[in-house]
Amino acid sequence: MNRWQGDPGNTARAVRPWRQALLLAGVVGLAYAGALPNGFVWDDRLQIVANPHLEGAAELPGYFVQFSQSLNFPAPQLTYRPFFLVSLLIDHAAWGLQPFGYHLTNLLLHLINTWLVFRLGSMLAGSPLAGLWAGLLFGLHPVQTEAVDWISGRTEAIAALFVLLAMVCDWQWSRSQGWRAMVWGAATVAATVCALLSKETAIVLPLALLLRAWLTGEGAPRPAALRALLVALPVVVYLLIRLSTMSNMIQSASERDWGGLIVTAAAAMLEYLRLIVWPLNLTAAHDFRFLNPTAGRLLGVIAGSIGAAMALWWLRRWRFVAFGLMWAMAFLLPSFALLLVGRGYLITERSLYVPMAGLAVGGGWLAARALGALRASYRQRGAAAGWAGLAIVLAGMAWAVSTRHQAWHDELSLWIDAVAKAPASGFARHNLAVELDRRGRAAEAVEVLRDGLRQVPDDLEIMVTLGEVSFNLGDVPTAAQLFQSAMRRDDGRPDPIVMARAYYGWGLVQYNQGSGESARRAWEAAIRLNPRHAEAALALKRVVGP
């Protein structure tokens, strides 16, 4: 089989791969150097600054037996990512609470992953030039900035590291015999286990290995299926353990609006496609909401699914492009599973980090093929024009990456940027108001929240946050009205964490007015909604005793 189906030429083979790797490291490293002076933002405060579980190696065993991302969140977590905690423990031991070191680790992880994409693209396409473009596309795409600039976003980079290692090892496994095949097979399974301990998206690795076998045209499908089956064994064990810890949440999943779930997931997939093709208005908070399953939307999903299947069938001759698209869809699917239990954000840019690896391999092949076609048709002038065009695209991407560093500089700049780009996002306004209030700018926080309620009058998070800030300012009547309005609001999908805050705030109002019994009931309701609500538990002890 001719993998190129139109070879772009041998010009790249004259360039040594190690020089291309150095070029990748220099270009991508320079683009992301602006993130190194940034501070701790968003969940970094809980996961790093205020996390008592990073104080020493004695905490290490707990990372692997507690099903929580940081062991320090105020609410139960669906995530199990012990390798993320191990990386924070190492950084904490080396750097303390100096954010520079943590950002340096993120950058190094991104550079390693960029090299692995380069390596994978070179091997699969049989051309270092295709690998070079794949690495540049992966390393410089602006949508990657959330996973790299945000310290707590490194779960994506760690997972990608082991996913890509598994792909490279599987490639060697398929071409080895005897004891070498056993070594590469063991390495593939080990990388899969490490990927599962990094992020849940690794459950689709067996499918990714089958896609790789299809891409490279392995003649006998049985060996590829057997390799995928061996890799699937730890995935099955992992899923059984994880499902046993989520039994209560799975029961609630049976009550979900399946029509709305399908429509919302399809719309989210389109938004992710938009972020990949046209990465403008990048933000930490996308105002993307759960959609009701109208007949028109359901028909649109059916038509879109048929169209996507036809497009993939048409692209089967361009296997690298089809591989990239199917890889991206496969690694995005686990993130939609959070919709089943009503947790998580519907759109997060960091969720595209691993999917971008496959897309970059397909894009690198396409770029190299285009350069080969230009060279064949227009000789040196055509090749020069092609290189110039690609260089302009990459320069624009690098510029977009550098501008995102400014938004991620600190907590205030992050949420000012988010509110400007998603003014109807209650999540963004909540975080901006909290940061303004923390800086002693409560009046500005109130105005930010009131403006949000004018735009989205029924937004639960804005309502509760405004109640909290009003209570802190001594405006108890306004706080009471907002908390009551929030508690009465039930659209069938209330966020239990935000609702717990509403009940806790109402308890404070009642306690302030001398009604201890009403306060007790409110705080008990808050704890039922969020068993890890520390403030409600402490307040309850004051009323009823230990």
Keywords:
single chain; disordered N terminus; 0% strand; mainly alpha; 546 residues; 24 helices; globular
Would you spell out the secondary-structure blueprint of this structure?
Elements (H helix, E strand, L loop, with lengths): L16 H16 L11 H6 L10 H6 L16 H14 L3 H27 L2 H13 L4 H5 L4 H21 L3 H19 L8 H11 L5 H25 L1 H7 L4 H20 L17 H20 L4 H18 L16 H55 L3 H11 L4 H13 L3 H14 L4 H13 L3 H13 L7 H17 L3 H14 L4 H11 L2
Tell how many strands the DSSP assignment holds.
Answer: 0
Structural class by SSE content: mainly alpha
Helicity, as a percent range? over 70%
pLDDT < 50 stretches: 1-14
- Strand residues, percent: under 5%
Please tally the helical runs, counting DSSP H or I stretches of 4 or more residues: 24
Overall geometry comes to globular
Instruction: Let me know the average pLDDT.
Output: 85
End-to-end C-alpha gap: 73 Å
Major sheet details = none
**Gyration radius, rounded:** 25 Å
H and E string: HHHHHHHHHHHHHHHHHHHHHHHH
Word description of this protein:
This protein is mainly α and 546 residues long. The chain is 71% helix and 0% strand. It has 24 helices and no strands. α10 (205-215) runs antiparallel to α15 (319-336) and α19 (442-455) packs antiparallel against α20 (460-472). The protein starts with 16 loop residues before the first helix and ends with a helix. The model is unreliable at 1-14 (pLDDT under 50).
